[in-house]
Phosphatidylserine decarboxylase (Acaromyces ingoldii), 319 residues
Amino acid sequence: MKMGNYVAVRGGNERFFEEMPLYVRVGMHLLFYGSRKASLLRYASVEHLLETMSKKQGVTYDDASNPEDVQKFIKSFIETYELKLDDLAEQDLTKYPTRNSFFYRKLKPGARPIAEPNNDKVISSAADCRLMVFDNVESATKIWIKGQQFSLPNLLGGADKNGDLFPPGSSLALFRLAPADYHRFHHAIGPVKMGEKTHLGKEYYTVNPEAVGENFDVFTANTRQVVLLDWEPVKAKVAFVAVGAMLVGSINWTNSDVGSNGKRGEELGYFAYGGSTCIAVFPPAAKVKWDGDIQANSLKGIETFVRVGERIGESKAAL
């Protein structure tokens, strides 16, 4: 028996069921259902266990000492998640020396076309993911994020601890990556100039909707890294947050030196094993308008499946 949640597909009324093994679902209920005081997370030892498990899993998935075991894992992973291999940059599975090297596999150039590449106002998906978008934090917390401590200052920490850069009315996009997804994340806007990174949090809670929709401060407690981007044509700063999660070994950045330039669609980083989330925060000055189908789904509490480079909205600010 399996359980899970429905995810909308763009271009019609189709939805697919994202299955979850029953034993995983039961475990998540024990950890995350109800108030924190009533769950197993009231015990500090459980939080320590999640951290230890995540770090240990990272070591295991970087282990190249048993090639046969690695190949068994890769083939089982492909079968379990029914992965298509046509888009892989490296299609010879024996060329992946570790589990993680396959997990954060690269794709062929052009495998993820960038929507309207010459339109600097367009916002595209940062990842292959299940996407939620909101015009403000009030909507996000009413419909989706139930952690009582969620606020933009708490999410962004020292990157904007007083809320000066991202005041009320700032828009959010939440890109949730499931284990089966391509696990590299890309610039959602551009051209941009990279700012400094801020490392926050220490927990390793799951980012599955089961936990996000309960009274747990997943996004404001989990280990995460925040980078501020100067969206130069729009003349606005945008915060991009990479959120670690249960069984995620690490957050890795590429082409992200302070002061470097990035284009929409270019790779920004990748997650090691596990599902995780990226969050983009846009100030009111960016005048973001989300695409209607994604916003309509989000207002119903339904995630939309999108891939890297797909258009998800645009800025209405004058260039």
The longest helix spans residues 44-61. The first strand starts at residue 2 and ends at 9.
